[in-house]
Each structure stands twice: as C-alpha cells, then as structure tokens.
Amino acid sequence: MDHIDQEILQLLKNNGRMTSSEISRQVHLSVPAVSERIRKLEESAVIDRFTVKLNREQLGQQLLAFIMVQLEKPEHVEEFRKVILQADSVLECHHMAGAYDYMLKVALSGTKELERLISDTIKQVPGVVKTNTMIVLSSMKEEM
Amino acid sequence: MDHIDQEILQLLKNNGRMTSSEISRQVHLSVPAVSERIRKLEESAVIDRFTVKLNREQLGQQLLAFIMVQLEKPEHVEEFRKVILQADSVLECHHMAGAYDYMLKVALSGTKELERLISDTIKQVPGVVKTNTMIVLSSMKEEM
DNA sequence: GCGATATCCAGAAAAATTCCTGTTCTTTTC
DNA sequence: GAAAAGAACAGGAATTTTTCTGGATATCGC
C-alpha cells in the first residue's frame, strides 16, 4: 500500500470502470503493473468490491431517514436480523452503543411507505420496544 | 427501465466491473444492446457513477460512529459545510429534521482520532453548540 | 555478498469494446 | 387499418483493452 496504490484507489473511487490503460497513463506505470496492483488490492481485501452507485431519486426513493431501534433482549436479535436483511428499503443496520441498540438507514418513496415499514415491519418484530425516526432533509456529503 | 434494466443494475451492484459480454450472456441480449442500455442508464442519471467499495478496517479505520450536531443559526452553515467537505473521515453529512440539525457518519482509526475530530474540528466551527456521538459496535448490513 | 522474492516493462495472443449496417418491432399518424 | 417514423436489436469488422508470457531490475533477509 504505497502512494501509487492510493492514487489508483482514488481514481477508482471516482470511476470504478476506469480502464487499467487509462490508470496507467495517470500514474505513469505500465498496464500490467497497474492490473497486478488492482488484483492484489482485491486479493488483500482492501478493495471489498466494485459496484455502482445508483440515484435513489431516479428510482422513486425520495425519502431518506434514520431509525433508531431499542431491542428489549438479545434473544430477539436473530429474528430482527432476518427481517432487516430481507427489507430492501433498509440500506444499513448498525449495532450501537448507547441508549438505542440499532441504527437503521432507510430509503423509501415517502411517508406512507415509511409508516408501513415502522408499523408493519419493524415494530412487528418481538422485542422491539421503542423506535425513534429522524428524517433527512438533504445530504451535503455521501460517500462510502 | 424494464425488468432487463433492473437485472443489469442488480448484476452491476454485485460486480461493477462485470463486462458487457458477461452481462449479455446472463440477460440473453447481444453485447451492443447491453452497452447501449448501460449508456442510457448513465445518461438518465439512474446510474450515478461506478465506484469501488473499500474495506475500512484494512485501511486503518476500525471505528465507525454517528455524530449529531446542533447548529445555532443558519448563518454558520457555509463555514460548517466547508469544514465537513474537507474532513476525509466524514463519510456522510445529512441535514436533518428534528432536535439536531446534522447527522454525520464518520470512520476513524480510534477514539483518539474521534476526540480530535469532535474537539478540534467540529466544535471549532462557530455556531456548533451541541453534539451527540453514537459509537457503532458492528454493522449487519451496509449497502449504498 | 548472494540467493529469493517482488515489481516492473515490453511484446504477443486473447478477449472485450466500439462502431457500423441492416433488420425487426413498436409506435405514431393519417 | 396501413404506411411512415423511430427505437431496439443482432451480426460483423476495426479498435482498444486485457491477459499472458519472458526477462530485467531492485529489495530484503541471511
């Protein structure tokens, strides 16, 4: 992980489909050298994976929110996990230290769908005793 | 945006570097047809951009946290924005409805760096009157 | 010093992409 | 309902990229 690797990662963060030959021109290395570096970054798990960032608004998910969840007892975690992993509108779920046990980041079409998610999905899980929802007005920064 | 486009997006989410020829085999279309569809998805901004998901732990950022920030008056927003955009450890910054004005998602090496970020960077911004930091213990889901 | 490992480059073969053309299918319009 | 216009697709050629070799150079540990 030298400074050239960092340059390569920076370029790939901006454009994950940038070709090795284009990268090679920017970092002043040969094409095989760049390909080999990328391969090793993947192998060493520094690069988790290549992906595509979609525009949520274009996909009808105009509403972004954070939902904090208090789970009564650890015995309910498995059921909770299953529900969360299946819910497409839940982008992230973090186990937290503090007053609440879980923090969810969710993307939905609007408040109707948010209401359904909270009432019909999250609060239906046994052990969920309290939630606290915070609505996002706008996002000034959003990387990975 | 038909079901084939959705298939293509799903494939690209799992592997952003999947070649058009590989995709064409999976969705039973010709290579030019797939390329054209991807081009249009980019043009219509459904695809924001291609990128790479890095492994934060491998990069020495073992600590993930959310910081909620209360900003006294809107006149301090510009200064706040500048500081946030420059801070590499701040992954996300959302303007919120509710008790706090901003929600930050930050990734750092540890509590020392977190302390510096809060005390020396965020709280130094004029107008920041209150913060509330929540530490992530583990993440069971994290997409985009 | 000396071997072992790693990194690099150059060139060739394989693969993928792009571009072009012709065809089919859908949609529009009369 | 039929003809025209437009969009989407498949096939093939030219270009670019990737991958795979072989060999040179540098680095590290002994």
Automatic annotation (TrEMBL), chains A, B:
A Gene Ontology BP annotation from the UniProt entry: response to amino acid
A Pfam entry, by short name: AsnC_trans_reg
SUPFAM superfamilies tied to this protein: Dimeric alpha+beta barrel, Winged helix' DNA-binding domain
Domain of life, source organism: Bacteria
A molecular function (GO) term: sequence-specific DNA binding
Sequence ranges assigned to domain HTH asnC-type in this UniProt record: 1-62
Gene Ontology cellular-component terms listed: cytosol
Keywords, in A-Z order: DNA-binding, Transcription, Transcription regulation
Alphabetical list of Gene3D superfamilies matching this protein: 3.30.70.920, Winged helix-like DNA-binding domain superfamily/Winged helix DNA-binding domain
UniProt keyword DNA-binding present: yes
Protein name: Lrp/AsnC family transcriptional regulator, leucine-responsive regulatory protein
